[in-house]
Amino acid sequence: MISFFVCLAILIGGYFIYGGYVESCFRPPIDDRKTPAYRLEDGVDYVPMENWRVFLIQLLNIAGLGPIFGALAGAMWGPAVFLWITFGTVFAGGVHDFISGVLSERNDGASISELCGKYLGPTMRHIMRGFSVVLLILVGVAFTTGPAGLLTKITPMSYNFWLVVLLIYYFCATFLPVDKLIGKLYPFFGFCLIFMAVGVGTMLFAEGYHVPEIALTNMHPKGTPIWPIMFITVACGAISGFHSTQSPIMARCIKSERDCHKIFYGAMVCEGIIALIWAAAGVSFYGNTAGLGEAFVKYHGAGGVVYDICSGLMGYLGTVIAMIGVIACPVSSADTAFRSARYTLVDWFKIDQHTLSSRLRLAVPIIAVGGILTQVDVTILWRYFSWTNQTLAMLVLWSGAMYLYANKGNAWIAIIPATFMSAVSCTYILVAKEGLQLSTSVAYPVGVAFAIVAFCLFWKRAKKVDRGELDIADKPVQG
């Protein structure tokens, strides 16, 4: 139990201390500099919104069920997962989210593919454009079929009925002004996400459940190795590339650059706290990791486990909150995934979005493709999401490192986690079932070698900045 509270204190302290330092590395913002929300205000995507609203929307955008499902799956390795959630959030996830948010804000709300292209080169821009659109639509599809199936079980309506209802909602959320639908619904659901975590955490200790102390031993029932599988499995609870696709949505709505710390780094820390609570529930509610593994089988996955824990700890209220969370959270990830896909295509093809007809020309085919994919088995493709998710995080961190280097900031705050995630991503795809399934004796050294190569390629490009061959430093922006 002491380990849990120490990790909680580190997360909170990390927001103020390390998060404040990260902000300082990007230079103090200019007070009178207008953000894109004001300079490019269009009443659709660029809309100034209140801080608290932007924070809750950002939290729900990046979180969804990620810090719940990922943390519960990570708890299969035992309380060692507390360490990755805590230090991953402070030194990797928070940095990643701040980078994606502030770079987007400083580049007129640009999508992540354009940012990677600017700082890592035109080849990466082309790769990231297609990669981002495919990934975002895939996320949208996965988080359409799941809620539709759950709604079918608890209502008399058919699966296809709910599928159509959800697609209609996603269609509206994709092209309507950001403050009309997302801006009004998300704060409520964001509050529900926080309330659910606080309720679980409070009752966990009130009911006297034993939360074990951190032990650097592998407690996974099947003996699955911690490295690198756990680091990929936890995903959103520590660091997630998907967050970088969502940050531009709110980068176009913040009123002051000084809000980037609390909105982007702060939302990630909040997500880390939620993940820590659910990881504690995972290692304690069923007695041990073997019991947790049996619950995953008995309740057919993490969704059923969440429902069982909430109802067991909070009774009827917990059941209601769990149902809202398990349905609303994936829906909130899906609709902003489709919206982000529109942003990516807009930046890619420079399509004006001021008129309703211009937005519909993108929203219709995006949702149509998503609707078609709900009719096919995307399970195989979805298996690669965890890997592509963390690979995207790696690329965003390298982009941030290059930005900081070009602008005379401390690039090491991004270089170190970028190098680490390079090793994680490469090693995972070499040993995973959906990868090459190589032995660890081969995968581990190759993963380290890949990280070293990535590190060297970064410095090779950095030398071009020194020689004046790359002009990627910030330009003065008029207020």
TrEMBL record:
<feature type="transmembrane region" description="Helical">
    <location>
        <begin position="127"/>
        <end position="147"/>
    </location>
</feature>
<feature type="transmembrane region" description="Helical">
    <location>
        <begin position="185"/>
        <end position="206"/>
    </location>
</feature>
<feature type="transmembrane region" description="Helical">
    <location>
        <begin position="263"/>
        <end position="286"/>
    </location>
</feature>
<feature type="transmembrane region" description="Helical">
    <location>
        <begin position="442"/>
        <end position="459"/>
    </location>
</feature>
<feature type="transmembrane region" description="Helical">
    <location>
        <begin position="360"/>
        <end position="381"/>
    </location>
</feature>
<feature type="domain" description="CstA N-terminal">
    <location>
        <begin position="4"/>
        <end position="144"/>
    </location>
</feature>
<feature type="transmembrane region" description="Helical">
    <location>
        <begin position="159"/>
        <end position="178"/>
    </location>
</feature>
<dbReference type="InterPro" id="IPR003706">
    <property type="entry name" value="CstA_N"/>
</dbReference>
<keyword id="KW-1133">Transmembrane helix</keyword>
<dbReference type="GO" id="GO:0005886">
    <property type="term" value="C:plasma membrane"/>
</dbReference>
<feature type="transmembrane region" description="Helical">
    <location>
        <begin position="387"/>
        <end position="405"/>
    </location>
</feature>
<protein>
    <submittedName>
        <fullName>Carbon starvation protein CstA</fullName>
    </submittedName>
</protein>
<dbReference type="Pfam" id="PF02554">
    <property type="entry name" value="CstA"/>
</dbReference>
<keyword id="KW-1003">Cell membrane</keyword>
<feature type="transmembrane region" description="Helical">
    <location>
        <begin position="226"/>
        <end position="242"/>
    </location>
</feature>
<feature type="transmembrane region" description="Helical">
    <location>
        <begin position="306"/>
        <end position="329"/>
    </location>
</feature>
<keyword id="KW-0812">Transmembrane</keyword>
<feature type="transmembrane region" description="Helical">
    <location>
        <begin position="412"/>
        <end position="430"/>
    </location>
</feature>
<keyword id="KW-0472">Membrane</keyword>
<dbReference type="InterPro" id="IPR051605">
    <property type="entry name" value="CstA"/>
</dbReference>
<feature type="transmembrane region" description="Helical">
    <location>
        <begin position="54"/>
        <end position="75"/>
    </location>
</feature>
<comment type="similarity">
    <text>Belongs to the peptide transporter carbon starvation (CstA) (TC 2.A.114) family.</text>
</comment>
<dbReference type="GO" id="GO:0009267">
    <property type="term" value="P:cellular response to starvation"/>
</dbReference>
<feature type="domain" description="CstA N-terminal">
    <location>
        <begin position="154"/>
        <end position="277"/>
    </location>
</feature>
<feature type="transmembrane region" description="Helical">
    <location>
        <begin position="81"/>
        <end position="103"/>
    </location>
</feature>
